[in-house]
Amino acid sequence: MSDSLDQIFIHAKQWLLSFMSGRAPDWLVQIISSLINILTLLGVFLTLFALISVLERKILGRMQNRYGPNRVGPFGLFQPVADGIKMLIKEDIVPARADKIVHFLAPVLIAAAAILTLGVIPYGRNMTPFTIDGGILFFFAVGSATELMVFMAGWGSNNKYSMLGAMRAIAQMISYELPLIITVLPVVMIVGSLNPDKIVGAQATYSLGFLPHWFVFTPWGATAFILFFVSGLVESNRTPFDVPEGESEIVAGHMTEYSGFKYATFFMAEYIGMFAISGLGITLFLGGWHAPVHFLEFIPSYVWFFVKLSILLFVYIWLRGTLPRTRIDQIMNFAWKFMLPMAFTCVVAAAVWHYAGRALRGWFWSLAVIAVVYFTLSILLDTRRKFAPRSYRFAE
Amino acid sequence: MSTVAFAAIAILTLAAALAAATLQKLMHAALSFAVMFVGISAFFFLLGAEFVGLVQIFVYIGAVAVLIVFTILLTRDDVGKVRGFNWGGVIVAIAVFAGLVWAIGKTKSLQSALPQIEPVTVQRIGELLMTNYVWPLQCVGVLLTAALIGALILVMEEKN
After folding, report:
1. Which residues of A touch B122 (CB under 8 A)?
2. Who among A99, A141, A194 is closest to B57 (CB)?
3. pLDDT digits over A254-275, tens only?
């Protein structure tokens, strides 16, 4: 019973395809098989986007001691529909001096890249939409293309706020891509594969029947997960790292000259990027679609994935409601002076853990490596002792 | 199926390359250059070399294209200006093309049948890099570290 519930979507797809295979040519069946995956993915995540956009406002409202949207539908749940209609009927303004083609292509391509990254994440048992040997590499390859799209948006708008915002966005995305990718390395090293399914499979066992072997429960994994999460915050331009769209300084950054549905597309791409990076974090460190304790494995695997995803998304919203925006120079210093050395330390700690026998001894030694580097860094980077008049480089 | 895909990718790649060479605005040329890189990585995917295809996107779109775009933006103040047609470039391109055609025409190995090779998996590449090619890998690592330190020294704040 539980097994059939777990595989219900897979069986439905197979049934549909076997129904087709007698009646249509092979290439058509192949294309339809891909289309089913793509449409399901789009349907699920666009619904999730609509839901999260209203939930975020609700939760933020609660944190700020007010109600949040509660007028449209029960509990304000139809707010996304109203928002969508509003965005669609807004006038689409393109600046007269803008580069029309580049200005138009930027939001389209940025959404395409964000949606592509969703394809390699395993959402449940046998539920990876796009199985590829180097899935993790695919994720980062497509993700790194986003920088060019942001640049297109900034340059195509022909506006100095847009250009400066794009520059900021690209600078911080490039800086945090390094720790992001390097924190993935220890997991790839330990599993010995770039395939997301194999990475999930490596975390499938339990000690004593209830302690899951997720990588987040090892010293290097916990450190890498925190670094990964912070880098993910930056990559998806979320508070406290949302300087590219700091209203008080550069209007809305690279999105300044966009209105109506194009702006909504940027908004959507940002949220989808957030889902994708959380999904990858779940796959790499939080055991993918596996249950946290063995006897709960009877609950379908995709339910576990989405439970974990909602928890991570709640943390994103929570941080947004809690933290103020950081300065751009603080973000950059943090990336190069703290995140990068710590990310490299995770790689070393994972190697130590592996060679000390993956048990209590490895646990101890890898924790020691991380602790030594962490405390050394915090002594070296301590700026509190230097009280001095502030000096300016480019202004008097 | 794969012939159709090949034709489609080839047309896309060639059109993007032509656009990169002929478009009037420098920034448009740089962006079509990026499209051409996508086309080339699609070729690698078509040939089953998915690792090379992914690295192609990673390095050329994520790094080289961004670098080109920034170089144009930061070094020239006439980004928006229309440039003239570059006849010298055409002559060089024709000369290179003719040289390549001549060299390929002279090669004899074209007649021999292709040897059957195993599909290259990521795992296999990793094993080779860690065994046979470990010294070249280390040398590249040292070179990149030197480049990184050099870049840091170049932009370091001058204290006077």
Report:
1. 133-134, 137, 193-194
2. A141
3. 888 888 888 888 888 889 999 9
Q: Please, are residues A200 and A290 in contact by the beta-carbon 8 Å criterion? A: yes
The two three-digit tokens of residue A264, written as one number: 């909504």
Question: Is B69 part of the contact surface with chain A (CB cutoff 8 Å)?
Answer: yes
Name the residue in chain B with its Cα closest to that of A189. B126
Which residues in B lie closer than 8 A to residue A177 (C-beta atoms)? Answer: 62
Q: Are A327 and A241 in contact (CB under 8 A)?
A: no
Residue type, A204: A
Tens of pLDDT, residues A149-190:
888 888 888 888 888 888 888 888 888 888 999 999 999 888
Cα separation, A271 vs A246, in Å, equals 17
Question: Structure tokens of B40?
Answer: 């080339």
Whole-model pTM: value is 0.85
Measure the CA–CA gap between A150 and A155, rounded to whole angstroms.
9
Q: Do A145 and B63 touch (CB under 8 A)?
A: no
Structure tokens at A376: 């050394």
> Model ipTM?
0.76
Structure tokens belonging to residue A346 = 């995770």
Query: What is the number of H-type helices and E-type strands within chain B?
Result: 7, 0
Cα dihedral A65, A71, A75, A81 in deg (nearest 10): -120
Sort out which chain B residues have CB atoms less than 8 A from A142's CB and list them: 57
Contacts of A283 (CB under 8 A, 6+ apart): A121, A122, A196, A199, A200
- Rounded Cα–Cα distance for residues A357 and A371 (Å): 19
Q: What percent of chain B has pLDDT over 70?
A: 82
Chain B, residues 105-134, CB within 8 A of chain A, namely 121-123
- Residue A55 to residue A265: CA distance in whole angstroms: 19
Q: Within 13 Å and on the Cβ side, how many CA atoms surround A371?
A: 7
Residues of B in contact with A151 (CB under 8 A): 66, 69
The pLDDT, as a whole number, for residue B146 is 94
- Using CB atoms, which residue from A138, A174, A177 is nearest to B54? A138
Q: Provide the H-helix boundaries in chain B.
A: 2-22, 26-46, 50-56, 66-75, 87-106, 122-130, 134-155
Q: Rounded distance, CA A350 to CA A189, Å?
A: 8
Run of H or E including A109? helix A100-118
Q: Do B27 and A193 touch (CB under 8 A)?
A: no
Q: Residues B116-127, buried b or exposed e (16+ Cβ, 10 A)?
A: eeeeebbeebbe
> CB B73 to CB A138 under 8 A?
no
Q: Considering only alpha carbons, which residue of chain A is nearest residue B41?
A: A141
**In this structure, what DSSP letter does residue A206 have?**
E
